[in-house]
Write a structure and sequence with these properties.
Elements: H1 3-18, E1 37-40, E2 48-53, E3 59-63, E4 65-68, E5 77-83, H2 87-95, E6 100-101, E7 107-109, E8 113-116, E9 126-130, E10 141-151, E11 155-156, E12 162-170, E13 185-189, E14 200-201, E15 214-216, E16 232-250, E17 262-270, E18 276-283, E19 289-310, E20 318-319, E21 321-324
Parallel strand pairs: 1-11, 2-12, 6-10, 14-15
Antiparallel strand pairs: 1-4, 3-9, 5-8, 5-10, 7-9, 10-12, 13-16, 15-20, 16-19, 16-21, 17-18, 17-19
Length: about 325
């Protein structure tokens, strides 16, 4: 919160208590109205973040206005609000973010005005309702909401005039069907091992439909006594363009909770297998599987998974299966 606003709110409470012990003359402040401001309470936290399950449901977010000053107002204060989607680009530029703007059909306001009653410091609340199912992608979506006007005329605190409501949608469970792997081939792998028919070790064992086999980065030392460390990567050709929402990564079944399963990864996609677009970086749990949702839906033929670090900080990595959906 801006220091000036904190000071005004503090004075509001201080002078309210002082009424009980001081005379009217002692409470007089020259140009008292100069210390009065109206602001959005939620703007004290920027962005104002919320996470909701992605389904066809409207989630409420309560919003209201506040008043700060050295004297209480003798009449009601009406505060009009407006949505300002044009501020999303400016916010992203100033903060180094890439939040998507909320589409007009993904949110609704119960009212566009709140009232701060005479002698009070807070207004009633209105409901901003959002529906993450209507978002354009899985990227966090931003909605700026500003004070448009105040009646009677009171200074609007510019630092707290706009609240940036940030909403992230999350799936409770994967609603998408897995893609068949029959036409998949190995485009490239940074290294692998020939561990025999039982466990495999080759790159293509990461998409052979079996959790018993796995791709394993090279663990045998070469003639110079070396073996590769991170990053390790595997690139897969799906045989034709496919619509992708994400991947599910299965760790080596006998190493769940142990070492070597991927921990820090990033995913890239490509139309031609040569020029790559990064989708996202992910931190994986050391569990049987991890579901990675892409920030946006893409239609591509190739994808590449790069392992930057493995659990227990070992040099190697292994993946039992990679599935796409």
């Amino acid at each position: 919160m801006k220091t000036s606003t904190l000071f005004r709110i503090f004075l509001t409470g201080l002078f309210g208590v002082s009424v009980l012990s001081c005379s009217e003359k002692e409470l007089e402040v020259d140009h008292a109205e100069a210390y009065s401001t109206v602001f959005l309470r939620a703007a004290m936290e920027q962005p104002y973040s919320h996470t909701f399950t992605i389904k066809d449901e409207w989630y409420p977010i309560a919003l209201g206005a506040g008043y700060g000053g050295v004297v209480f107002q003798p009449e009601n204060i009406s505060v009009s609000l407006e949505v300002r989607p044009e501020l999303v680009a400016q916010y992203n530029e100033e903060n180094g973010t890439s939040y998507a703007p909320m589409a007009a059909d993904s949110y609704r306001l119960s009212e566009e005005q709140v009232t701060i009653p005479a002698g009070k410091s807070g207004s009633n609340s209105i409901q901003l309702e959002v529906n993450p199912l209507k978002f354009s992608s899985l990227r966090p979506h931003l909605l700026p909401l500003s004070i448009k006007s105040v009646a009677p005329e009171i200074t609007i605190d510019e630092g707290l005039q706009t609240v940036y409501v940030l909403v992230t949608g999350r799936y409770e469970e994967n609603p998408f069907e897995k893609l068949p792997q029959d036409a998949w081939t190995l485009l490239e792998v940074s290294s692998d091992e020939n561990d025999g028919p039982d466990t495999g070790g080759r790159g293509y064992h990461a998409f052979d439909g079996s959790l018993e086999t796995f791709w394993h980065s090279q663990w045998r030392r070469d003639e110079d006594g070396n073996r590769p460390g991170h990053p390790h990567h595997i690139s897969i050709d799906m045989g034709q363009p496919e619509t992708l929402h994400g991947l599910e990564i299965f760790g080596r079944t006998n190493q769940v909770g142990g070492n070597g399963n991927p921990r820090d990864v990033f995913v890239e996609v490509s139309d031609d297998g040569e020029n790559w677009q990064e989708m996202e970086q992910y931190a994986l749990e050391n569990t049987a599987s991890n579901t990675l949702y892409f920030p946006e839906v893409v239609t591509v033929r190739y994808f590449r998974l790069t392992v930057l670090a493995s659990h227990q900080d070992v040099y190697r990595t292994h993946i039992a299966e990679i599935e796409a959906f």
